[in-house]
Specification:
Structural class: alpha+beta
Largest sheet: 5 strands, antiparallel
CATH topology of the largest domain: Rossmann fold
CATH architecture of the largest domain: 3-Layer(aba) Sandwich
Strand content: 25-35%
Order of helices and strands: EHEEEEEHEHHEHEEHEEEEHEEHH
Shape: globular
Bound molecules: adenosine-5'-diphosphate, magnesium ion
Number of domains: 3
Length: 304
Amino acid sequence: MANRKIGMWLYKNGGGEKIAKKIIKKLQERDIETINNLSLHNCVSQNGHILYGDIKVDKLDLFFSYNAGEQTQYQTYLYQALNRLVPMINSYDAFALSEDKFHTSFVLNNKGVPTADYKLCHRDDTAALKKIIKKWDKMVYKPTDGWGGVGLTKIESEASLDMLMPFLNQMDLRYFYVEKFIKYDNTDFRVDIVDGEFVSCYGRKASKDDWRTNVTSGGSVFMREANDEIISIAKKATKACGLDISGVDMIYDLEKEQYVVLEVNGIPAFATPEQEKIGLDFNNKKIDLIVEMIDRKTNKKKGK
Ligand SMILES: Nc1ncnc2c1ncn2[C@@H]1O[C@H](COP(=O)(O)OP(=O)(O)O)[C@@H](O)[C@H]1O
Ligand SMILES: [Mg+2]
């Protein structure tokens, strides 16, 4: 009989299912049982418990949540509740922080991690936007909860800001979040960190007709060596956000001559089978670090 039991919900596409199997096997070797595909979407809460069929999810030793694409609002609502009772990877607070670009930049700035210059203002405060584009020349409007480069809008002049304003006003937004447009070589670095340790680094290059490196915007993944500075910034950013697992996206600012963190992803994908073929071979290292961390975190609880 396993003496420890965890719940896991991991994405299935892009090789995810195979990753889950490996994790389950390695946990088993440490006497940790896994309830796989435990989607909070299929749970209910009543009388202070979160129920998955007969299983009381709040009695598990840990919950590992690793699915960005399929997360519903209901799930994040229960994620928050469950985390009051059970250790979660990532913790709800860190997860919620990493899902929001403003909150991430705010925290990183405060902790001395270089980011793009940003400004947040109320949607009525168009004067603030006009003032900042004068100073910055070019800026990027970003939805604070977006992904995949979707909704990012490059604003290249005061005139284009004037043109954009009526559209933004129509969208019934609560606020505007803008960043200074950084001059860079259209490539980025993705650095994965697990449990404070460096796992891997790779790069993405924007397609020739886009300024965004996202694969969903036509960008392509390539092998790329990290250096000490990049690793140290990624570790610092991860710690600042309180994340157990992270993928830190960085670009090199050609004007400031420094690396800046663009975003910290709380559910960075494992290498897909196609990416493994081009040499991204970090999956096993990442799995081992995750398993080790789950073992430690569930042990601590038993010891209490
Ligand atoms: N301030 C910026 N200056 C220049 N390029 C940027 C800036 N912010 C984002 N980008 C480009 O747009 C891409 C997507 O931005 P990001 O903030 O990571 O949003 P998403 O969550 O949609 O990926 C980045 O990978 C980068 O190539
Ligand atoms: Mg991004």
